[in-house]
Amino acid sequence: MIEKTPNIESLMFSIQVASWEGRRQVEWIKRTGFAEDEISLQLDDFYRAVKNYVVYIEGEEFPEFLENGIQELLDLFEWLADTPELWTFDSIVAAKEWEVVRGRARRLLAEVRGSSWSHFLGDSDSV
Predict the structure, then answer these.
(1) pLDDT tens string 55-100
(2) DSSP 114
(3) 87-91 — which CB contacts under 8 Å span 24+ positions?
(4) Would residue 60 be called left, alpha or beta, if left means φ above 0 and alpha means ψ between -120 and 50 degrees?
(5) CA gap 3, 86 in Å, rounded
(6) Are 65 and 114 in contact (CB under 8 A)?
(7) Spatial separation of the C-alpha atoms in residues 83 and 79, rounded to whole Å
(8) Cα(first)–Cα(last) distance of the chain, in Å?
(9) Residue 30, Cβ neighbours under 10 Å: how many?
(10) Are 69 and 114 in contact (CB under 8 A)?
(11) Which of 5, 83, 84, 123 is deepest in the core (most CB within 10 A)?
């Protein structure tokens, strides 16, 4: 079994942040002092860290469903990045494009909850 590491916890948390409703995302951005694009940057950073640097025992590997779901989310964030006006607080809260991203993140969380990786989620949804 893969050991729970700070990077894995942070990856799960970044998926959760991507799933939050817009007002909560904006509150998180303001509270942390991060720029608006940090939601996608953290997902990308922790995905790469977990995918490339976690030591897997023989027969284990990064789950395909998780890899596909994260890649879809990153592609959606790249799609948002093509339109700078979508990276304002008002747009994060109200733009339908952001709902597409949040919807995919919520579906990915449901997949994680139904998998052997569910124990990595912890209680970070309440943060």
Answers:
(1) 666 667 788 999 999 999 999 999 999 999 999 999 999 999 999 9
(2) T
(3) 87/36, 87/37, 88/36, 89/26, 89/29, 89/36
(4) beta
(5) 37
(6) no
(7) 8
(8) 26
(9) 10
(10) no
(11) 5
